[in-house]
Amino acid sequence: MDDRSINKIVNAYKEKKALYGEFCLTMQNLLIQLLDNNGYKYQIAHRIKSLDSLTNKIQTKWKEGKECRKLDDIYDLAGIRIVFYLERDKRRFISDLYKELTPQNLTLKERHKEKGYRATHVIASFGKKRLSLGEYKKFKNMLCEIQLTSALYHAWSEIEHDIFYKGDFSNLKQNSDIIKLKKDLENTMTKYIEKASSSFEKVAEKVKELGNNKKA
Hints:
Radius of gyration: 20 Å
CATH class of the domain at 3-153: Alpha Beta
Distance between the termini: 66 Å
Low-confidence stretches: none
Number of helices: 6
Strand order of the largest sheet: 1-2-5-4-3
Largest sheet: 5 strands, mixed
Order of helices and strands: HEHEHEEHEHH
Number of strands: 5
Structural class: alpha+beta
Shape: flat
CATH architecture of the domain at 3-153: 2-Layer Sandwich
Helix content: 55-70%
């Protein structure tokens, strides 16, 4: 893929970047309303992709043999991350999300590394009913990637990202010391984080059962 083709996509995004920002914020406000109405404990953040990040993504996709010929081929220009306390809250929210946005406008992708990042990525758009309203019409065909994860997995992935990906390790990816350190961090995930997450789930479920028994 030549620079001219990449620039064409990037320029198309540059023209619509402000609209994507508005779309992302509108989607986040809808999600906040859904979260609050159903009593979730959560943290939420939104972002739109930078021009540099878009350029890098197109180049990476092309190297991987994935075609990216127009702006609509990129589904994460708008992004929202929701961090729940527990995995079960994440699963419950997915069910609530299907009630709010029709299944035709949602695509789920599980992102589970063998050791590490664990999340559900939802590609969402507004349905025909909302798009028929004046304030939503301008968001037709726009996609948002909603990342759903729980607190422990989020914390681990942020730490891993800051340690290994924000530094300049481009020439050290195959360095034996770096490989060993990444292995050590992965073992920490397996030995402590995954077990802690499972323990939290069990404790929360037991407390809920005790509360229900008391009410009965």
